[in-house]
What we know:
With about 290 residues, the protein is of the alpha+beta class. The protein contains 13 helices and eleven strands. A five-stranded antiparallel beta sheet has the order 10-9-8-7-11. Strands 3-4-5-6 form a four-stranded antiparallel beta sheet, covered by helices on one side. Strands 1-2 form a two-stranded parallel sheet.
Amino acid sequence: MNLxxxxxxxxxxxxxxxxxxxxxxIYIRTGELFNYDPVYIxxxxxxxxxxxxxxxxxxxxxxxNIICYSWAYMYVDLLSAFNIPAKVIQNxxxxxxxxxxxxxxxxxxxxxxxxxxxxIKFGMEIKNFYQISAKEYSFCQIDQNIYTKKxxxxxxxxxxxxxxxxxxxGLPLEKYNYxxxxxxxxxxxxxxxxxxFVSGVTFINELLKDVFNDCNISYYKYFFDIEKRIFIKLxxxxxxxxxxxxxxxxxxEALCNLxxxxxxxxxxxxxxxxxxNEVDMNRNAFHLAYNKR
Length: 293
């Protein structure tokens, strides 16, 4: 796909000519189109260095998996094509972009803590595109034209939170935990694009923390097969004497799914896949500290 030509066409059709609005639009569109590559999370340091140095050809995109470094290089290339000055800022663990518009500096960091690359996909407010110069800038309303699902999602989350609070009062904790995961299963299957494995896991974690914050998970594990691009997160909790299992899975580039799975199926996982752990996912929980000036 010629990403540059596609964005030029979209921006021309939207009649956008303000540099800040163009930069923000491209930021949001790359968050919609690209997924964080889970391969980077599970491979060793040698393979990770190769991925760090990979650049996306913006006129011939062959795949839509990126990491912080490849996204930063790509974003700078796209902005450069629109004559917007920007540069990659990075350290050994993370990369972001600094943009200069009308003498003001802005930070764009799509993959920081997996926040915006996840939030954009679910129609939520972005957090990591912001001004760091003291001189204020008049912000645009481009976000309102992009987040077409925001109100629907917020309504669904609010309704489910109310349902959980009502049902919790009449259920034992174990059954409430099971009900919670069935609710999350509904959310993850609600009018969504292919959000990818990393963004899906990030969103589920946020739901467990912020919406269903009293759901106790007994344990969870990661299983993966790099060559087949299979990535699985396993959640488990007890209801009395029984363990209940849910998995969030991605196979190849197919849509991810959260669904209940049997204990018998789980017993086959160690022989079928490599075992990861929670530390692996946290390797991507990095961000750069930017100083306002």
